[in-house]
Specification:
The chain contains 15 helices and 16 strands. Strands 1, 2, 3, 4, 5, 14, 15 and 16 form an 8-stranded mixed beta sheet that branches. The termini are far apart.
């Protein structure tokens, strides 16, 4: 029987990314003190010895689709690009029940938690046809069930076919933000402005699927111009932004200037976009990734996530932020520190969550992974982990390995030694 969640008071002997070791005192879900290892000896909750573990800010997933997750084996869709994935999903969506959506969403969220993610922003489709809010009701149910284990924020993902009334009904039920994919609409500008009007009317933020293709419409600049005068506390972000990666330098700089002025957060989704984009280019295949280096250099709020996990839009994925960080290093040429920041502190900033991590006054959203350094952790992604949410241990994983001993080098027998000496 699980004894989790377990309130913690003291973390001992943790290794930080800079190689130093420390003790961390927790108080009411807040980091109360950080001191050299071996110097703190008390806490108001349980003590956790993290010898041999690297202690990090817990990941936050800035762009998930919990209503779609883990459906690939059920749907068995064709492998292919964004359009084929949309068609496969829409056909299957007609057969889903609220209960079946909730079952997959719950399993997907708990997989993320097990790997270390303690905050998730999930889009949820406003479905077409009868019962358009089935997915919304399912994810609201899962959010309530998992409250206290991880934080879930929901975005109403509306196609251009979805009526305004259905989007507003989702907000009435408890969805937090307005979302959509205007670049896929017959009239991208009109659909974008419709979604922004709904958000303004309801006083909520937006997280828009933006320019998810190697060519085609560019809507990010219009989004930035349209929200520039919004109140500072009304969050706005744009996911995918693949088109930025194909722009010439001058045009890219112009768009990023607008994004910076409007404080729009950019969310890169490497695993899904690396899968979906480029199918039409069998030679010198371009890769679907936003202009991550230019975004960082422009000091724009930047996050990275997995997006889809094992559904028609991405047949693979481990629900592990370390997988996303690794892809940012290999595909995006980010440093190890930049890559992990994008899935942790950077993601929390884009999601407007409180500052977390190993710092006095930060909220105790922490992940400890067995390893010797940040490079070791990202490269090997050990499954040995402790996950801390609001100062409590909410998940732990321990793996054992049993590998055959290597064959020893041949040792000459006594007789062979005599022969060699004669």
């Amino acid at each position: 029987m699980s004894h989790l969640p377990l309130p913690l008071g003291l973390l001992q002997n943790a290794t930080l990314p800079d190689g130093s070791t420390c003790d961390v005192l927790l108080d009411g879900g807040i980091v109360a003190a950080v001191a050299p290892a071996g110097t703190l000896a008390f806490g108001s909750g349980a003590t956790l010895d993290l010898t041999g573990y690297v202690l990090l800010t817990a990941p936050a997933e800035p762009h998930a689709h919990l209503d779609k997750a883990l459906s690939f084996d059920v749907i068995e869709p064709p492998m292919g690009d964004l359009v084929s994935a949309i068609l496969a999903w829409r056909e299957y969506a007609q057969t889903m029940t609220t209960e079946s959506i909730a079952e997959r969403a719950r399993a997907a969220a708990l997989l993320m938690l097990r790997q270390g993610t303690t905050a998730v922003r999930s889009h949820v489709d406003i479905l077409l046809g009868d019962e358009p809010l089935r997915g919304v009701r399912a994810l609201l149910q899962v959010r309530d069930e998992l409250r206290g284990l991880l934080d879930i924020e929901l975005v109403a993902l509306a196609s251009s076919d979805a009526p305004d009334a259905d989007i507003e009904a989702a907000i009435d039920l408890g969805v937090d933000l307005v979302g959509g994919a205007p670049h896929l609409s017959p009239d991208p500008s009109a659909d974008l402005q419709r979604l922004l009007r709904i958000a303004e009317r309801r006083g909520v933020g937006v997280d828009i699927h933006t320019d998810e293709g190697l060519g085609g419409p560019l809507t990010l600049g219009e989004l930035a111009l349209s929200v520039r005068d919004w109140p500072a506390d009304r969050n706005r972000s744009a996911g995918h932004c693949v088109r930025l990666g194909t722009l010439e330098a001058d045009e890219l700089a112009e768009v990023l200037d607008e994004v910076k002025l409007a404080d729009v957060g950019i969310i890169s989704l490497p695993i899904t976009n690396l899968y979906l984009q480029g199918w039409e280019h069998p030679v010198s295949t371009p890769r679907g990734l936003t202009a991550v280096r230019a975004v960082l250099d422009a000091n724009i709020r930047f996050a990275a996530g997995a997006d889809n996990v094992r559904d028609p839009f991405n047949p693979v994925g481990r629900s592990d932020a370390l997988e996303t960080a690794s892809l940012l290093v290999t595909a995006g040429h980010l440093t190890l520190d930049e890559a992990y920041t994008a899935v942790s502190d950077g993601a929390r900033e884009v999601l407007a969550l409180p500052r977390a991590g190993v710092a006095v006054g930060a909220v105790a959203e922490l992940l400890a992974v067995r390893g010797s350094s940040l490079s070791d952790v990202i490269a090997n992604a050990s499954a040995d982990r402790y996950v801390i949410h609001a100062g409590a241990l909410v998940a732990q994983s321990t793996v054992t390995y049993d590998v055959a001993d290597p064959t020893p080098l041949h040792q000459p027998s006594h007789h062979e030694n005599e022969v060699m000496l004669s």
